[in-house]
Amino acid sequence: MRHGETEWNLAGRAQGHLNSPLTQRGRQQAQRLGEILARELGSPDGFDQMASPIGRVQETIANIRQHLDFRPVATDLLKEIDLGRLSGLTKPEMIERFPAHMAGKPDHDWYFGAPGGETLADLRERASRWLGTLSRPTIAVAHGQIGKVIRGICLGLDDAQILRLKEPQGVVHVIEDGAEAIWT
User: Fold this and answer.
1) Which residues form the active site (predicted)?
2) Where are the alpha helices (DSSP H) in 52-90?
3) β-bridge pairing 73-74 and 172-176
4) pTM of the model
5) 17 near 38, Cβ under 8 Å?
């Protein structure tokens, strides 16, 4: 699951490892995640529970907890991509300050390899390390870019396919036996 919408999501400001609080809509999305999990699972017992330590994820978890006893362990392996010097900037600010990095890159491809930040290969390696720690079914709350890389690895996708994955908020991605379902 991805955290709920944040003030910076709404403003088009890149977050990376920085934090921004959830909007009212983001809190509603997080509540919805709790409702979905309660409806589909009843209880998270029988699942490991893990999450990013970044504040927007922790705020999402607090809202999920209103619907079921969900107490994930925080791990840095689930942090969002490190955007380096792009962190906290809007896309126009990035283009102004880092024109060579931004030139000709579609949509969110500029996230990867930002000055002082992580590459797609770095994020894939970190996601693989996290997946290697799993020993049983796991519920995780994280972020858009790390989430789509984890999903892509589990689905056997190449980098180009991973970059095309969507990262919606307010839904639960369920991956089992190399297939993905989305709970809404």
Assistant:
1) 3, 80
2) 55-64
3) unpaired
4) 0.95
5) no
For 154, the token pair is 């589990």
> H or E element: which one contains 51?
strand 48-51
Known binder of ligand: residue 60? no
Q: What is the largest CA-CA distance in the chain?
A: 50
46 is in an annotated binding site: no
Instruction: Give how far the C-alpha of residue 138 lies from the chain's centroid of Cα atoms, to the nearest Å.
Output: 15
**Structure confidence by residue, pLDDT tens digits, 121-166:** 999 999 999 999 999 999 999 999 999 999 999 999 999 999 999 9
Cβ neighbours of 76 (radius 10 Å): 11
The residues assigned a catalytic role are 3, 80
Alpha helix segments (H runs only) across the chain: 7-11, 24-41, 55-64, 91-97, 99-102, 120-133, 144-154, 159-164
Helical axes 55-64 vs 24-41, angle rounded to 10°? 50
Q: Residue 19, Cα to own-chain centre: how many angstroms?
A: 13
119 known member of a binding site:
no
